[in-house]
């Protein structure tokens, strides 16, 4: 049975009332005591101070905070209880969270409380997270009349209440919908937990496989095992000659994330290659980001491409080193590379990258050395695929379950609407 058919059977002809959230619950804006620094405390009797940074995008609960405020500061704020809702009204507009703790919220949040006689809290969470509601918020904040989700807007949001004249039956229907949707979220949580364990396992084996006794290896520099290094350039932004209908992959450092690169988000034209320093980089290079916040991150390009000037691309000499072995070594030493950055931005350069040391096993026997490097790389590649690949492994399964959840959520919450269309 389809989700829509199941919903129809579950309702069994029962009425669905659409009621403004402000009539079902207390919706209020948060409040910040001023100056906030006066009220921050480390005292054990302090009240959790809930900020945007205390939330996790893929979690529906807020369970801990980085800071506390004094009881006096909490009285000047908006105090909430475990089980109440908070909704961001100024940054990630409309994202709902359920409080797993008692706490106080600042004025970047709106609160939703006192609703449990009519609404199951998880049912409300799923509904507020639905595409229809999230899109509704976007239409409101992009209308030009408002710049944030003020409490009046949230109060006016229409909420579907099945069987409004029979609270017990209404809550039972809501609970059944929650049960189905939670099945998907629980599976996603299990897969995410497994992914976390696999990443730990991967890091463990990587440490084991890439740790050698001094007499087992010869230390060379990345430059020693590199045939050629490449850099790039950024064609002048806004020049259609360099970007319009471009077909040549152009890599930016934000796309260098310890993985294989099969495509890029931006394409440039042949004119950009001909007239700027953005030159072709052959496939299977080890690419290291050298700029600021991205410095030290690495990747392998599985397609020929061009890059911006903040990438150092190493074409590894196949007679001396396996390029995937080099990639795993560089990835394993990300923090060390990052900390080598210079200047206010912490930038690296090609000299620093090519001077970085790498252990070469059995260096006096090229065939044996390459075989050992290939063996190590093959083991680590399997873990890397399981923990990082978006086309295989756990990340793919998690993405599929999330899509499945979103589909069933939107179907199961597609209640018959009144003539006056609302979110």
Radius of gyration: 27 Å
Tally the helices. Answer: 14
Reading off the top of the CATH hierarchy, the class of the domain at 15-165 is best stated as Alpha Beta
**Based on the structure given, which CATH architecture of the domain at 15-165 is correct?**
Alpha-Beta Complex
CATH homologous superfamily label of the domain at 15-165 = DNA methylase specificity domains
Beta-strand proportion: 15-25%
- Main sheet properties: 5 strands, mixed
Distance between the termini: 26 Å
Main-sheet strand order equals 2-11-8-9-5
Mean pLDDT: 86
Low-confidence stretches: none
CATH fold annotation of the domain at 15-165 = Adenine-n6-DNA-methyltransferase TaqI, Chain A, domain 2
Overall outline: elongated
Helix content: 25-40%
According to DSSP, the number of beta strands is 22
> Would you tell me the structural class of the helices and strands?
alpha+beta
Which key phrases capture this entry?
single chain; 423 residues; alpha+beta; Adenine-n6-DNA-methyltransferase TaqI, Chain A, domain 2; five-stranded mixed β-sheet; 14 helices; 22 strands; 20% strand
Question: What does the model show?
Answer:
Among the domains are: 15-165, Adenine-n6-DNA-methyltransferase TaqI, Chain A, domain 2 (Alpha-Beta Complex), CATH 3.90.220; 223-355, Adenine-n6-DNA-methyltransferase TaqI, Chain A, domain 2. It has 14 helices and 22 strands. It has helices spanning 3-11, 21-24, 71-75, 121-129, 131-141, 151-156, 167-209, 240-243, 270-275, 323-332, 334-339, 350-354, 366-388, 393-412, and strands at residues 16-20, 26-29, 40-41, 47-50, 61-62, 67-69, 78-80, 85-88, 96-99, 103-105, 109-113, 158-162, 217-221, 226-230, 248-251, 260-261, 266-268, 286-289, 298-301, 306-307, 311-316, 357-361. The strands form six sheets. Strands 2-11-8-9-5 form a five-stranded mixed beta sheet. It is elongated. 31% of the residues are buried. The mean pLDDT is 86.
């Amino acid at each position: 049975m389809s989700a829509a058919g199941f919903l129809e059977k579950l309702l069994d002809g029962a009425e669905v009332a659409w009621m403004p959230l402000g009539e079902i619950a207390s919706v209020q804006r948060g409040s910040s005591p001023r100056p906030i620094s006066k009220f921050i405390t480390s005292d054990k009797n302090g009240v959790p101070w809930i900020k945007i940074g205390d939330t996790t995008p893929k979690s529906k609960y807020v369970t801990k905070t980085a800071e506390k405020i004094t009881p006096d500061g909490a009285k000047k704020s908006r105090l909430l209880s475990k089980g109440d809702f908070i909704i961001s009204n100024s940054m990630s507009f409309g994202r709902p969270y359920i409080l797993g703790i008692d706490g106080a919220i600042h004025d970047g949040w709106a609160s939703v409380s006192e609703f449990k006689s009519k609404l199951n809290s998880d049912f409300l969470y799923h509904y507020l997270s639905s595409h229809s509601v999230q899109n509704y918020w976007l239409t409101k904040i992009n209308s030009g009349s408002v710049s944030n989700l003020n409490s009046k807007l949230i109060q006016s949001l229409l909420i579907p209440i099945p069987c409004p004249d029979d609270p017990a039956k209404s809550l039972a229907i809501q609970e059944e919908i929650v049960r189905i949707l939670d099945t998907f979220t629980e599976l996603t949580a299990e897969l995410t937990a497994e992914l976390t364990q696999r990443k730990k396992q991967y890091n463990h084996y990587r440490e084991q496989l890439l740790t050698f006794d001094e007499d087992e290896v010869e230390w060379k520099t990345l430059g020693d095992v590199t045939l050629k290094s490449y850099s790039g350039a950024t064609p002048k932004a806004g020049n259609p000659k360099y970007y319009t209908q471009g077909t040549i992959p152009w890599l930016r450092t934000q796309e260098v994330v310890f993985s294989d690169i099969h495509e890029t988000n931006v394409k440039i034209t042949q004119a950009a290659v001909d007239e700027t320093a953005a030159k072709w980089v052959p496939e299977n290079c080890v690419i290291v980001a050298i700029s600021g916040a991205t410095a030290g991150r690495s990747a392998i390009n599985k397609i020929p491409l061009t890059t911006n000037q903040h990438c150092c691309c190493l074409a590894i000499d196949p007679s001396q080193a396996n390029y995937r072995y080099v990639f795993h070594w560089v990835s394993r030493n990300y923090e060390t590379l990052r900390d080598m950055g210079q200047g206010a931005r912490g930038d690296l350069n090609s000299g620093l990258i090519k001077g970085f040391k790498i252990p070469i096993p059995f260096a006096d026997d090229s065939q044996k050395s390459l075989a050992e490097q290939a063996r190590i790389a093959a083991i680590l590649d399997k873990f890397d695929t399981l923990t990082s690949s978006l086309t295989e492994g756990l990340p793919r399964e998690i993405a599929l379950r999330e899509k499945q959840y979103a589909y069933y959520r939107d179907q199961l919450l597609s209640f018959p609407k009144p003539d006056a269309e609302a979110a």
